[in-house]
Specification:
The structure is a homodimer. The first copy, chain A, is built from 12 helices and 11 strands. By secondary structure, chain A is an alpha/beta fold. Chain A has 2 domains: 187 residues, Isopropylmalate Dehydrogenase (3-Layer(aba) Sandwich); 153 residues, Isopropylmalate Dehydrogenase. In chain A, strands 3-2-1-4-11-10-5-6-9-7-8 form an 11-stranded mixed β-sheet, sandwiched between helices. Chains A, B: Its main location: cytoplasm.
């Protein structure tokens, strides 16, 4: 843990449930982490009321930072960016830019969060585009996959940058020395991939990364790969497909154990077994996607996250602060893209982390 | 059912298990369908032995058609096409081309099957590229999705052709008047899709199809859409992802019910419930992908299909013969692409179906 106590700015108004979820989750994390400081960003009166409802009108490690506006879940990213300059999302990101917070956590609109974070924090020099990385359960652990929707059309160079960012993140937060990087592709030998994927494979093969080659969709779950790299279109479709199938199977299993008295009785008896299963694959456990490649830590919580899930997103931020993820990426990128390839014109700025 | 008795050519050597699976599955189907005639294509001696082992050295509605070679599961499509002209796969397709069979079923190498089928049967005039369509379980029924890997880079026009083919197939085999067609996309409003997807949406909107607009990965399972259209790269990743997740969850569930004596006992009691669940999502039930857009019916079985699964692929062929799927597609395409757009140079040839 860095010497300074970690400070996290929470977009307290974001997500489907707003303060109803963000405030109790924040209080849970304060209880769990005695060093943690939180800034709840949002409408002062609403947040005060919510805190009071949870019996904590004040807390020594918590403060409210007023922001008058709220980005709606269906606001267009460009409009949120242009018209809602005093939104809880924007102001929380400003706090990171200004060095008052080490990270921002938001359950708000993904597109708006990405656009605003990119505008406010800028990308790390050498990174052209930020990407979204998520964690999914796999046999014997978990797999990290990016990009999950920030970039629809990606060049080979972009995929390579995603790989570098994912590698440095996983190395830091999972404490693995040399995580395995795979490039998502399809299995037909001769038509293997489109041009970008083939080119990206060449870039990855000659890089410092532990590149294990092409992987297919089912490899996400086999535990044979730690970081799966793909473009945002494919990644987003894969993620949504996973969510959809998990929901259908969960529903069918619940219905199966409810369809008659016998099934219900067995279902009751099977609860301990099913609970273990549910816990392992509980999406709340995996809540907290990282917006990688920015000059600051930004964690995106699922919009409909509940208290426990949102707390996990805060924990993810805490871990990335502790491991100084953006600095690691920045240092690595500076060495490998030093020749000017992929250098982004955004100028670096002073953040709390840079100063630390 | 057409007046002629349906004849299906089976690539009896294809797949991970070859005759061990194809022969008993063929015999099962002959028992079930008293009109059905089957041609087992493959090495005469091997097939004779296999039939004898199943106690049927001869059957009035079954004949063996000798083919000396076998396409291996890892043969490159181009090599299979060039070098194995007497493979069971190629010869089975020849029988369809020559009007001796109404359909071909193979569990062989997908790439080789697609390349060979395209070469032997040619595409339907007006269709530029064949596509692979699969059926997946969904809430209240099933969803059909294409392309699953035949075409990596697709233009808007290709996606439109896929939609037309999928629509005509589903209308025929599911007996629905106006199945709902969705275009697979991602949810971010402003970056919605790449150029091809946006253009395809415009084409679909002004077509005769029941186009319901963009759908996301999770919609595959909600029962809100009947036909999901996407390019072969995305489709293949989605399909493999689904297979991988289903396998992981199934494994975890089995492990959960085995980890101690209590869990085992409950697992035994839960068998009737779990069986219903397993049956509904049994991949064998959904075995049999159709290679759409060819001048003939070609069904691809999963390579590791077992007897029951392979029999389902034969049933799929039977259904498409009954519904004259290629003719329906051909007629539709002739009317909508009559202006010359998307006309493919392959000349039509005489098949058993054309003559019927």
């Amino acid at each position: 843990m860095s010497k300074q106590a970690p400070v996290i700015a929470i977009d307290a108004m974001g997500g489907d449930h707003g303060p109803e979820v963000t405030v109790p989750a924040a209080l849970d994390c304060l209880r769990q982490y005695p060093q943690l400081q939180l800034i709840l960003v949002g409408q002062d009166a609403v947040l005060r009321e919510s805190l009071a409802a949870h019996g904590r009108s004040d807390h020594p490690r918590l403060r409210i930072h007023h922001a008058s506006e709220v980005v709606a879940m269906d606001d267009l990213p460009s409009r949120a960016l242009r018209n809602k300059r005093d939104s809880s999302m924007r102001v929380a990101l400003n706090l990171v830019r200004d060095g008052e917070a080490d990270a921002c956590v938001s359950a708000g609109n993904t597109g708006a969060l990405m656009a605003t974070a990119r505008f406010v924090l800028k990308t790390i020099p050498g990174i052209d585009r930020p990407a979204i990385i998520v964690t999914l359960p796999a046999a014997n652990g978990c797999t990290h996959i990016l990009d999950m929707g920030a970039n629809v059309d990606c060049s080979a160079e972009h995929l390579y940058q995603f790989a570098v960012m994912g590698y440095e993140l996983v190395r830091a937060v999972e404490n693995v020395d040399s995580p395995r990087v795979g490039l998502l592709n399809i299995g037909e030998e001769e038509i293997k991939g489109n041009e970008q994927v083939k080119q990206a494979a060449r870039l990855l093969s000659s890089s410092y990364l532990n590149f294990i080659g092409y992987v297919e969709g089912d490899d996400i779950f086999t535990g044979q790969v730690d970081i799966v790299v793909t473009d945002g279109f494919v990644g987003n479709v894969a993620l949504k497909t996973i969510e959809g199938l998990a929901r259908l199977l969960g529903q069918a299993l619940r219905e199966g154990f409810q369809k008659n008295l016998y099934a219900r009785l067995v279902g009751l008896m099977a609860l301990p077994v099913l609970r273990g299963f549910k816990q392992r694959f509980d999406p709340r456990r995996y809540n907290g996607a990282t917006l990688l490649g920015l000059q600051g830590i930004v964690i995106k919580s699922h919009g409909n996250a509940d208290r426990a899930a949102f707390a996990n997103a805060i924990r993810m931020a805490l871990l990335e602060i502790d491991k100084a993820v953006p600095e690691r990426i920045g240092e690595r990128v500076a060495t490998i893209f030093a020749n000017g390839a992929g250098i982004h014109e955004d100028a670096p700025h002073t953040t709390r982390m840079n100063r630390a």
